[in-house]
Design a protein that fits this description.
Organism: Amycolatopsis rhizosphaerae
Mean pLDDT: 89
CATH superfamily of the largest domain: lambda repressor-like DNA-binding domains
Oligomer: single chain
Number of domains: 2
Strand content: under 5%
Shape: elongated
Radius of gyration: 24 Å
GO molecular function: DNA binding
Order of helices and strands: HHHHHH
Structural class: mainly alpha
Number of helices: 6
CATH architecture of the largest domain: Orthogonal Bundle
Protein name: XRE family transcriptional regulator
Length: 129
């Protein structure tokens, strides 16, 4: 498989601009040495890097852990949370939608509960007079 470190460099630089981050912040977030980040970002030294380095940089840039590896080998990067298994990703997407809906329903129930408590309190005051 052909490695495209230039594409990795471009992806990192684009993402840093999108996120408004500086190289120093990427170093801090990824815990990858500044020398290595500089080499990859500026595409000055082309050599094999560990999968952990690419993963740390991907995560620091709020990407899927294997995003930069996919870019390096010319594959379509996955979105955070995706597994690459279409069936599992579809299930995860549906579960996420269910969780969102449950959260909305919980908020509605909390509001209804608070309104009911206020009504009962007002009725108790009326009865006490």
């Amino acid at each position: 498989m052909t490695e495209n470190w230039s594409a990795v460099s471009k992806a990192i630089n684009r993402r840093l601009a999108e996120l408004g981050l500086k190289q120093r912040e990427l170093v801090e977030r990824s815990h990858v040495s500044q020398a290595i980040v500089r080499e990859i970002q500026n595409h000055t030294v082309e050599r094999r890097r560990s999968a952990r380095t690419l993963e740390a940089l991907s995560l620091a840039l709020d990407w899927h852990p294997r995003h930069l590896e996919a870019v390096l080998y010319g594959r379509k990067p996955l979105e955070p949370g995706q597994t690459g298994d279409e069936a599992l990703d579809a299930i995860a997407t549906r579960l996420g939608a269910i969780e969102d809906r449950l959260f909305e329903l919980t908020e509605r129930l909390d509001t209804m509960s608070a309104n009911l408590a206020a009504l009962l309190k007002a009725a108790d005051r009326r009865d006490a007079r």
